[in-house]
Specification:
The protein has 634 residues and is mostly helical. The chain folds into two domains: 16-176 and 321-478, no CATH class; 178-308, Up-down Bundle (A middle domain of Talin 1), CATH 1.20.1420. The chain contains 23 helices and two strands. The protein starts with 15 loop residues before the first strand and ends in a 16-residue tail after the last helix.
Length: 634
């Protein structure tokens, strides 16, 4: 497969103004207009918390329509759950003082645990459940009877913000996300097939390179869910994208398996004492070549279905792997962080610190969805004073006592548009900093009708807002979050445990291809954690070894399961016993026995035999740790 390098020569260059493309300017203007629509509707309806509508717009500020709609739906759901939890917690523990704060801490820990078990906007929804409790119940900790009215007001403001985003995106034609996703999956398809061609031409299968491609494929999983909310064909596009990802993972696994096969029978290997070993390897090589071609065809077909908006021929699930141990430890730490901040304020005895305590919960909740919670907190420490400065400039230098909505719209324009441009940058650090600054600016400014200009209230709000991020950072220094090394050890340990528990005859609810994708999401988490640790490529090599072995064992189990009700059932049971031993020589001997039994009964078992040959190579201790070897031409 050859990539067409000349097709990009005639592509038009995007318009650029002030260093930003036109698409970024269009996105920034949509965010500004949606904020104005949300504020105007909130003022007109005389909502209690109109700033929540504008903050909702800032949180839902995403460049494509489908992404915004999906996040909006999860935001509404999480708000409903958070309001219900606020009413239950405040109604049950309103007269218990310190116990109420302890219950808040436990709730935050549970929400962070749930966020750790999910990804994308689902994780954001879990985090928002604790944020909603913080903004409703914590801020009304001294007046529990106001929890229900405050929750209703917040829900109404969020609904206004969601509707404003939907209205502006539809009116101004916000772009769909499926063309971008199709282009990214297409580029990954090219990379995978180039990798396969290199292996076929005699190249070496590098574990870090293969793991990097698995990471890039699995990283698209959270974004694919947004396609379902994009249009009437969104569900079909989402299914096609999932199937394409799973097929690409299968092609990568089969390519690495092809590279692991010896080119010729090697004298001295224990398995080669069997006279049929060379023939089995040749048969396996032919089968692998056809299987790679078939999977590549499936991936291309799924990509075509994604572009056309039709259902794929074969629909795969794309399950997610998450470590319960890591999520539980993160949840416990989050609960302790909030409890430490609450103890600090109780001991300080300061009045009106509910805002600070609620912002502590907000930072902890949002940080739980970031790969590096401490890095997110550092960004919050930086963004908070910038937001206070921008809010102060707007309130006391730009607005300066006025209450006309037209002046509010003009004054907000440079701040919202400028920060939205920052959000549109491909640099994740700057984009995250821009989003945090925009949200915090609206929180501190808190636009109301009429606008409040009390400098004492503003200064106290700024002080407590900055203190909230500093307190979270101090708590994380006192009790550090999970390090990259710790995450890697837990993930690798769980991979080894899962590998040792795979039984050749035990049924599973996932197809081998789907289980392989699930393992690919664990590879992505290991690589992400490896970037922040002192580990070397040996971590990736070990992770890929577990990935390859688990995939081949599951595929063998599936193939043998198809033979369980055939005349080859006895031979299949003997093979299962050999797989349980995890001995390459015994597996290869069982493969030869299965081949002979199939030939005698005129049955077709080439797929099962080829899979068993791969298993014999995977569990042969004489093979290199990387599972790679020099290959000759296909």
């Amino acid at each position: 497969m050859q990539m067409n390098a000349t097709s990009t020569v005639t592509e038009a260059r995007p318009l650029v103004f002030a260093g930003f493309p036109a698409s970024s300017w269009a996105f920034a203007i949509r965010v500004w207009l949606a904020s104005l629509v949300a504020l105007y509707a909130s003022f007109w309806l005389q909502l209690e918390a109109p700033s929540s509508a504008a903050i909702t717009v800032a949180i839902l500020a995403l460049p494509t329509r489908g992404q915004g709609f999906e996040k909006a739906g999860y935001r509404l759901l999480a708000t409903f759950i958070g309001v219900a939890a606020s009413i239950a917690i405040a109604g049950t523990f309103s007269q218990t003082g310190g116990l109420l704060l302890a219950v808040f801490s436990i709730w935050i820990g549970l929400c962070v645990y749930a966020a750790g078990m999910l990804d994308g906007n689902r994780a954001y929804a879990a985090a928002l459940c604790c944020i909603t409790v913080a903004l409703i119940a914590v801020q009304q900790i001294d007046s529990p009877l106001q929890v229900f009215p405050s929750g209703v007001a917040r829900g109404a403001a969020i609904a206004i913000g969601v509707l404003a985003v939907a209205l502006v995106n539809d009116t101004l034609g916000a772009p769909d996300y499926h063309p971008v996703l199709a282009a990214r999956l297409g580029a990954l398809h090219h990379r995978v097939m180039d990798f396969a061609q290199d292996i076929a031409g005699g190249g070496v299968s590098s574990a870090p390179i293969a793991a990097g491609m698995l990471r890039d494929i699995a990283a698209l999983r959270p974004e694919i869910a947004s396609l379902a909310a994009e249009s009437s064909s969104g569900a079909a596009r989402s299914a096609a994208a999932r199937s394409a990802m799973v097929d690409l993972v299968s092609v990568l696994f089969l390519t690495r398996a092809f590279a692991a096969l010896p080119a010729t029978s090697t004298t001295g290997r224990p398995a080669d004492r069997d006279v049929g070993a060379s023939g089995l390897i040749k048969m396996c090589r032919v089968w692998l070549r056809s299987e790679i071609i078939r999977k590549n065809t499936d991936a291309r077909s799924s990509l075509d279905a994604l572009r056309a908006g039709t259902d794929p021929i074969r629909q795969w699930r794309a399950p997610l792997y998450r470590s319960r141990r890591i999520a539980a430890e993160s949840g416990v730490r989050a609960a302790i962080y909030f409890a430490l901040a609450a103890i600090f304020f109780v001991m300080a005895g300061w009045p009106n610190t509910e805002i600070c305590l609620s912002l502590v919960a907000v930072i902890i909740g949002l940080g739980s969805t970031a790969p590096n919670p401490r890095g997110f907190t550092i960004q919050a420490v930086i963004a908070m004073p910038i937001a206070c400065l921008l809010a102060g400039i707007l309130k006391y230098f730009v607005f300066n006592g006025v209450s006309e909505f037209q002046l509010l719209a003009i004054g907000l324009a440079p701040v919202i548009i400028g920060l939205a441009l920052l959000i549109s940058l491909p640099n994740r650090t700057l984009s995250s900093l821009g989003r945090l600054t925009l949200v915090f600016t609206l929180v501190v400014l808190a636009p109301t009708n009429p606008q409040s200009y009390d400098p004492q209230v503003f200064l106290v709000t700024c002080l407590f807002a900055c203190l909230s991020s500093v307190l979270v950072f101090a708590a994380q220094l006192l009790l550090p979050s999970l390090s990259g090394d710790r995450r890697i050890r837990l993930l690798l340990g769980e991979a080894r445990t899962e590998l040792s528990g795979i039984n050749a005859g035990q049924s599973r609810h996932l197809a081998p291809e789907e289980a392989a994708f699930r393992d690919a999401t664990r590879i992505e988490q290991i690589i992400t954690a490896n970037d922040t640790s002192a580990c070397n490529d040996q971590v990736v090599v070990e992770a890929m070894r577990c990935f390859d072995r688990a995939a081949i064992l599951r595929r063998c189990r599936a193939e043998l399961g198809r033979l369980a009700a055939s005349p080859l059932a006895d031979a299949a049971r003997a093979v299962q016993d050999a797989l349980t031993l995890r001995n390459g020589r015994a597996i290869l001997a069982a493969a030869e026995a299965l081949r002979r039994a199939a030939a005698e009964s005129n049955r077709f078992a080439n797929s099962a035999v080829a899979e068993l040959v791969l298993a014999s190579v995977a569990f042969d201790p004489s093979q290199p740790a990387t599972g790679s070897s020099q290959r000759k031409q296909l």
